Automatic annotation (TrEMBL):
Record-given protein name: PCDGK protein
UniProt subcellular location: Cell membrane
GO cellular component, as recorded: plasma membrane
Species whose genome carries this gene: Erithacus rubecula (European robin)
Membrane topology listed for this record: Single-pass type I membrane protein
Keywords from the named record: Calcium, Cell adhesion, Cell membrane, Glycoprotein, Membrane, Repeat, Signal, Transmembrane, Transmembrane helix
Record Pfam families: Cadherin, Cadherin_2, Cadherin_C_2
One GO MF term: calcium ion binding
Domain Cadherin: 53-161, 162-269, 315-421, 428-540
The organism's taxonomic lineage, starting at the top: Eukaryota, Metazoa, Chordata, Craniata, Vertebrata
Record-annotated membrane-spanning stretches: 548-571
Length: 668
């Protein structure tokens, strides 16, 4: 079981710069059958010196270069890895330059000369420096290069790149000549001093120069060799732009090239035979061979293929969305989220809006790719409160699998409707006049303001306040019901006509309001009302006198009718009493019961019976006036009420009230 070295091992030959360097093997043990996997890691020793590409380097630096300028130097290469690789650089002592050692993304080191003191060609025409590269071995190994610097009169404008770092990505196995990136620099000088030549920086590794080519005139970086994702995933390329002046100005930039993996490696199947030939009496389950599958590609390119065996799964089965009414059209209101554990196209999800309980294609829209639900128009809570719909989430497999998600959109109310007055009607050209009798006590309900608010909830609560009145001390209004009462008893010196302005406010935010105007007349008899009404008739109507006589004729006919009915009643009463007396006398009864008293409706000039309830419907246009006379429901004055509903809504409404009678409410 001992594992022996068969020949001399050279880590740099086996693995190059790859670390760690390992060799894998498998050992099969029989009786009992066991399989062991092993790995041998080849450790590095410091057996290689750093090496520069050349023994001398030559730089031309203008005396006009300002302090702080940087000059990349050629990098040394050390095939060892880890601490045995190149670790640092050292520069011989001098008054003008310092050395700045930097690290690339792959961990390798490179050095730059930094000008600390400006050069003077008249004082010193050239400088000779020594750059030493050291690895991290013990003892360290080193390499040296002579740096010769010529100080010349310079071109006073160096090229400038439009960006310091360029980024590009290229697929592995890309054909030679494919464009990777195009760098660009400019120089403000004229003539040869402004002509720019592009080239690789001096410390660009040789491997990069083998894989990429740079056009010196256009700055186009193209693929030159064969890229392999499995060998290197990223290349850091340093380029420079130099003008053609006597002392050329130089600018530097960096290009990061990312290599994209391509499925260019087939899976490899390794079969290890451990039991061959197989006996015919081998028991079921006997191991015949061991197989392992590997793929050098990355991510999905290195996995076995997927089957569409999973339906999309939504983060929740249903959504409730609350949207304020009067919204801005086109806003997103919901993001339907779903996942699919499958891979590739089998996991690609699309979202579709299915028809709900109403035709809403013009109201809602969903983004097919990301499931964002948009509201296309402005909603109105008073029009519709709720919308229900289904969102179908479907994958891209064959056959496709789908999941349905229910979405309910609720339109919340905003206070966007002011109270609407139903009585008195706000759009009528005629005024509504209510009548109250002189001497009416405090607390008597005169009329009622009826209003509604199309909003909902707290936004629809209406409060009523007395905003303005002819006599503010005479009337008051109920805060929540709009009923108008007498605040005190009416006196003889009160004005005969009163105008009330009622303010109606809801409880929304902001508060919306409207107003209603109520006209109240203080009158005792029908004659007074008729006189007042003839005063407000249009003066320009030549037929107003005809209307007055027509009303008078109606009153006279009504009076004649009631007198006739009264006569009939008296005659009937007389006959009844006669018959009663005859009956009682025949029985020798000493007591007699008086007959019932009948209240007969009548219209008399300036007179009404105690419990008589009289309604007069008149308008300023006398051609549309009516006179209705009705007898009371009960003989009790306090209980007398009458409700009349008349089609055509009269322009002016007067009520003549007898003893202790009151006006009907709008509901009555």
């Amino acid at each position: 079981g001992a594992l022996l070295v068969n020949e001399r091992i050279d880590r740099e030959e086996l693995c190059g710069a790859l670390s760690p360097c390992s060799l894998s093997f498998e050992i099969v043990v029989e009786n009992p059958l066991e399989l062991y996997s092993g790995t041998v890691e080849i450790q590095d020793i410091n057996d290689n010196d750093p090496a520069f590409p050349s023994s001398q380097a030559r730089l031309e630096i203008s005396e006009s270069v300002a302090a702080g300028a940087r000059f990349p130097l050629e990098s040394a290469q050390d095939p060892d890895v880890g601490v045995n690789s190149l670790q640092t650089y050292q520069l011989s002592a001098n008054p003008n330059f310092a050395l700045d050692v930097q690290t690339r993304v792959d961990g390798s080191k490179y050095a730059e000369l930094v000008l600390e003191k400006e050069l003077d060609r008249e004082e010193q025409r050239e400088l000779n420096l020594v750059l030493t590269a050291l690895d991290g071995g013990s003892p360290p190994r080193s390499a040296h290069v002579q740096i010769h610097i010529d100080v010349v009169d310079a071109n006073d404008n160096a090229p400038v790149f439009n960006q310091s770092t360029y980024k590009a990505s290229v697929r592995e196995n890309t054909p030679s000549g494919t464009l990777v990136a195009r760098i660009s620099a400019y120089d403000l000088d004229d003539g040869p001093n402004g002509d720019i030549v592009y080239s690789f920086s001096s410390h660009t590794p040789a491997k990069v120069r083998e894989l990429f080519a740079l056009d010196s005139a256009t700055g186009e970086l193209r693929v030159k060799g064969q890229l392999d994702y499995e060998e290197a995933k990223l290349y850091e390329i340093y380029l420079q732009a130099k003008d053609k002046g006597a002392v050329p100005g130089v600018a530097h930039c960096k290009v990061l090239v990312e290599v994209v993996d391509v499925n260019d490696n087939a899976p490899e199947v390794t079969v290890t035979s451990v039991y061959s030939p197989v006996p015919e009496d081998a028991a079921p389950g006997t191991v015949v061979a061991l197989l392992s599958v590997t793929d050098l590609d990355s991510h999905d390119n290195g996995l076995v293929s997927d089957v569409n065996d999973n339906a999309p799964k939504a983060s929740q089965d249903s959504y409730d969305v609350y949207v304020p009414e009067n919204n801005v059209p086109g806003i997103p209101i919901l993001n339907v989220s779903a996942t699919d554990p499958d891979l590739g196209r089998n996991a690609h999800l699309s979202y579709t809006l299915l028809q709900g309980d109403t035709a809403f294609g013009h109201l809602f829209s969903i983004n097919r790719e990301n499931g964002t639900l948009y509201l296309l128009t402005s909603l109105d809570h008073e029009d519709q409160v709720e919308f229900s719909m289904m969102v179908q989430v479907q994958d891209g497999g064959f056959p496709p699998l789908a999941t349905n998600v229910s979405v309910s959109v609720f339109v919340t109310d905003l206070n966007d409707n002011a109270p609407t007055v139903l009585y008195p009607h706000p759009n009528s050209t005629a005024s509504y006049t209510d009548v109250v009798a002189p001497g009416t006590p405090a607390g008597h309900m005169v009329t009622k303001v009826v209003a509604v608010d199309a909003d909902a909830g707290y936004n629809a609560w209406i409060s009523y306040t007395l905003l303005q009145a002819t006599d503010p001390s005479l009337f008051k209004v109920g805060l929540h019901n709009g009923e108008i009462f007498t605040a005190r008893q009416l006196r003889e010196d009160d004005a005969p006509e009163h105008t009330l302005i009622i303010l109606l406010k809801d409880h929304g935010e902001p508060v919306l309001s409207t107003s209603a105007t109520i006209s109240i007349s203080v009158a005792e008899m029908v004659k007074e009302v008729l006189t007042d009404l003839t005063d407000v008739a249009p003066a320009s109507d030549p037929r107003r006198h005809v209307t007055f006589y027509l009303i008078l004729a109606v009153i006279l006919v009504s009076a004649a009718f009631f007198i006739t009915m009264l006569s009939v009643g008296i005659f009937k009463c007389y006959k009844w009493r006669k018959s009663k007396e005859l009956y009682n006398s025949s029985r020798s009864t000493t007591y007699r019961t008086p007959g019932p008293f009948h209240h007969i409706d009548a219209v008399r000039g300036g007179f009404t019976p105690p419990s008589f309830y009289h309604q007069v419907y008149l308008t300023t246009d006398s051609r549309q006036s009516d006179l209705l006379c009705k007898k009371p429901f009960t003989s009790s004055p306090l209980g007398s009420r009458q409700g009349t509903i008349r089609n055509g809504e009269p322009g002016l409404y007067h009520q003549i009230v007898g003893t202790a009678s009151r006006l009907p409410t709008p509901a009555e």
